Amino acid sequence: RVLTNQNALPLDWRADGFVPSECPPMGLETLKIDDFQLHASTMRRYGLGAHRGRLNIQAGLYDDDLYDGAWCAGRNDPLQWLEVDARRLTKFTGVITQGRSSLWSSDWVTSYKVLVSNDSHTWVTLKNGSQDLIFIGNKEKEIPVLNMFPVAAVARYIRVNPRSWFNRGSICMRVEILGCPMPGTCYVCTITTTDNLDFKHHSYKEMRHLMKVVNEMCPNITRIYNIGKSHSGQKLYAIEISDNPGEHEPGEPEFRYTAGSHGNEVLGRELLLLLMQFMCQEYLSGSPRIRHLVHETRIHLLPSVNPDGYDKALEVGSELSGWSLGRWSQDGVDIHHNFPDLNSILWEAETKKWIPRKMLNHHVPIPEWYQSKNSTVASETRALVSWMEKIPFVLGGNLQGGELVVTFPYDRTRSQGVSREQTPTPDDHVFRWLAFSYASTHRLMTDARRRVCHTEDFAKEDGTINGASWHTAAGSMNDFSYLHTNCFELSMYVGCDKFPHESELAEEWENNRESLLVFMEQVHRGIKGIVWDMQGRGIANATIQVEGIGHDIRTAADGDYWRLLNPGEYSITVRAEGYSASSKVCEVGYDIGATRCDFTVSRTNLSRIKEIMERYNKQPIRQPLRDRLYHLSL
Questions:
Q1: pLDDT at 625 over 70
Q2: Within 13 Å, how many C-alpha atoms sit on residue 181's CB side?
Q3: CA distances from 442 to 99, 507, 600, 628 (A)
Q4: Three-state secondary structure of 473-521
C-alpha cells in the first residue's frame, strides 16, 4: 500500500517504517507547522485553504464545511502551488502527498514539481540533470505517497506545484514535508524532556522485551501477564504495577489503562510503555508521589489491545499508514465498538418501568446471542470482557489517537436515528470531572490558542465532550464498562497524529505525562469501604446505592467497594440478599483520598429461619419440629 517514486533514494528500514533516518517530518500533520506558515496560489474557498493541506487531515461530513479535507486550488491549471515556510534554513529531503478527504468528491494530484527558495520571490525547481523533476503523485485519495529527492535541497521555503490531476476531479492535496533544520537561530522551539526513557517505536517483540526489562528492574512492584490472544495468536500482554503484584488487596482500588484497540493509533501504545518505565524509575529513586500511587493502587497497563493491526501500520511506517490502515483487528472488527449494546437493553427496561423489579440499573447482563460462537466478536474483545469481569476495576482510560479530547459515556445517543445528542449517564457530573482532570493537565487540550486537529474545536469545551454528542456509537468499551461492571471508563484522544514520527515521542510524552498521573490519582476520589456481616466476614455482591444517582455498584469478593463521587454529602444504602438494608451519610472532601464508609449488616429473620431449615434438612429430625419450622417461616 505504500507508493514511492522510482527515482527515490533507498529508504532505511526502522522501527517506525519507511521514513528516512536523516530527516523527519517537519510537522504539518502534528501542527508543529502553524497555519501562518502555509500559503497557496489560490483556494476554492476558506474551508479548502492552504491551512487544510496537512497530511491525514479529516474533513467534516459535508463538502461545504468550514473545515474541509485538503487544500484545493481555485483554478485547475499548472500555475497552482502550495507553499511551506520553514522559518529557517532547512535541508528538505522529501514530500508525502495524499488526495482530498471527502465522502463525496474524488480529487487528487497525479504528478507535481517541487521548488525551493530563500526569499519566497526567486524559486529554483528541483532537477534531474538539466530537466525539471516530475514526481509521481497519487492514484487515489487516501493512500500516502512518498517521494524522496535525489539530492537534498537547502532553503527556507518549499513549494509543491501540481502538474496533473485526476481527470474527473480537481487540484487538491494533503502534504507532509521531510526536512532537517540547519544549525542557527531556532524560530520554532522543540519541547525536550529530562526523562531517561526509550523514545522509539517498539515492534511486538521489542515491546515484550521492554516489559521484561522493566520487570527485572522493579521485580517487587511489577508483574507481566497476558489476558488472552489476538486473532493471529499474539498474546495480549499487560503489566501490573503494585506493592503486592498478583493479588487483589481488600481496600485497594484497581485501575487500568489500555491502548491500541485501533492498531494504527500508536501514540497511546508508546505512552503506556513510557509510563511503565517512568514509574519504575521514579519508584526506585524514591519519588513520594509515585511510591504513594504504587502502594495505594493496583495499576494495570495493557499497551497493545490490537497487535495484529499495529503490525500492519508498522509495516509501512509512521507517515505512510494513512488514516485507517491497521485500525481493525485481523478479522476486520473495530474492537473498541465490538462490545454488546447494553444501552438499548437498559433504556428499554426503563421505558417499560422494569427497574428495579425485573431488572437492575447496573451490571446489565450480556445477551446470550453475543456469547455464542457464531457472533461477530473479535477474540481480542472476548479477552477484554473476561479481564473486565475478573478484576474489580474502579477507573479506566483507553488511549486513542487522531484528536485532542477526552470523551465520556454515554457514547450512544438515546434517540433513535440521531447521530449527535447529549446523552448523559446518571454519573454525568463525576464523568465530567474525570475528563477534565486529564484534559486540564494536558499541555495542549484546553489551550484556546491551539489549532483544531481536524474539524472540531474541543478547546471551547475544556477539551472534553460527551461521546454521544460527538458521534453516536453503539457497543463502545466505555458504555459496556459502565453498564456491566463497576468501572468508570473514558477515552483519551492523546494527539492529532495517530502515528507520530519517532522524533515526536519525547514531546508527546511531555504533553501527556502529568495527565496520565493525575487521572490515575482520581481513582482515590469518592467513598470506599467494606461491607461485613455480624461475624466480620466480607459480603460479596452487596449493592451500594447513592441517593439521587440511578446507578449502583457492587462489592468485590472480599466485600470491599469503591464508589467514585464528587465532593459533597451523600446518603448511602447497602443491600445484600438475606441481610437487612443499612444506610448512613458519607461526606466526600476536596482532597485526594476516598472517605472510608464501612457497613455492618445483620441477617434478616427470614434468612435465619431458612438457614436453620437448610441445616436441619441435611440431617434426619422429627417430623413435628420440621412442620413447626415450616409454619414459622410462613
A1: no
A2: 15
A3: 32, 12, 42, 69
A4: CCCCHHHHHHHHCCCEEEEEEEECCCCCCHHHHHHHHHHHHHHHHHHHH
Whole-structure pTM value = 0.87
Query: Which are the contacts of 427, defined by CB distance < 8 A and separation ≥ 6?
Result: 482, 488, 549, 551, 564
Beta bridge partners of 84: 38, 158
Specify the pLDDT at position 321.
87
The dihedrals phi and psi of 115, each to the nearest 5 degrees, come to -125, 150
Phi, psi of 520 (to 5 degrees): -60, -40
State pLDDT tens for residues 438-493. Answer: 999 999 999 988 889 998 899 888 999 999 999 999 999 999 999 999 999 999 99
Residue reference for cell 497525479: 110
Lookup: cell for 159: 513549494
Q: Which residues of 103-124 are buried (b: 16+ CB within 10 A; e: fewer)?
A: eebebbbbebbbbbbeeeeebe
Give residue for cell 511510591.
291
Higher pLDDT, 177 or 195: 177
Return contacts of 189-197, CB within 8 angstroms, 24+ apart: 190/507, 191/443, 191/506, 191/507, 191/510, 191/511, 192/506, 192/507, 192/510, 193/506, 193/507, 193/509, 193/510, 195/274, 195/278, 195/281, 195/509, 195/513, 196/281, 197/274, 197/277, 197/278, 197/281, 197/509
Q: Characterize 138-154 residue by residue with b for buried, 16 or more Cβ atoms within 10 angstroms of its Cβ, and e for exposed.
A: beebbbbbbbbbeebbe
**DSSP per residue over 175-203, as a string?**
EEEEEEEPSS--SSPPP--------S---
Peptide bond before 424: cis, by omega within 30 degrees of 0?
no
From residue 337, give the alpha-carbon distance in Å to each of 6, 47, 284, 389, 517. Answer: 40, 31, 39, 18, 26
Cα(452)–Cα(520) distance, rounded to whole angstroms? 27
Q: Which residue in the block uniquely carries the three cell numbers 446523552?
A: 423
pLDDT of residue 629: 52
Query: In this structure, what DSSP letter does residue 354 have?
Result: -
Q: Is 70 exceeded by the pLDDT of residue 499?
A: yes
Gap between the Cα atoms of 498 and 504, Å rounded: 12
Question: Looking up cell 495480549, which residue turns up?
Answer: 236
Q: Determine which of 389-398, 406-415, 458-467 has the lowest per-residue pLDDT on average.
A: 458-467
Sorted by sequence, the CB contacts under 8 Å of residue 505 that are 6+ apart come out as 199, 200, 201, 267, 270, 274
**CA–CA dist 203, 209 (Å, integer):** 10
Nearest-angstrom CA–CA distance, 192 and 187: 15
Average pLDDT for the chain:
91
Distance CA 308, CA 258 (A): 16
Output the CA torsion sign for 370, 374, 375, 379.
Answer: positive
β-pairing, 403-408 vs 464-466, is parallel
Question: Model confidence over 307-365: pLDDT tens digits?
Answer: 999 999 999 988 888 889 999 999 999 999 999 999 999 999 999 999 998 999 999 99
**Residue that has been written with the C-alpha cell 483487528 in this structure:** 329
Q: Are 223 and 245 in contact (CB under 8 A)?
A: yes
Q: Which amino acid is at 503?
A: S
Q: Are 419 and 474 contacting, i.e. CB atoms less than 8 angstroms apart?
A: no
Contact residues for 535 (Cβ-Cβ < 8 A; gap 6+): none
pLDDT (tens digit per residue) in 356-390: 989 999 999 999 999 998 899 999 999 999 999 99
Q: Is the peptide bond before 410 cis (omega within 30 degrees of 0)?
A: yes
Which residues, other chains included, contact 435 with Cβ-Cβ below 8 Å and sequence gap of 6+?
406, 407, 408, 463, 464, 490
Residue 178: what residue type? Answer: L
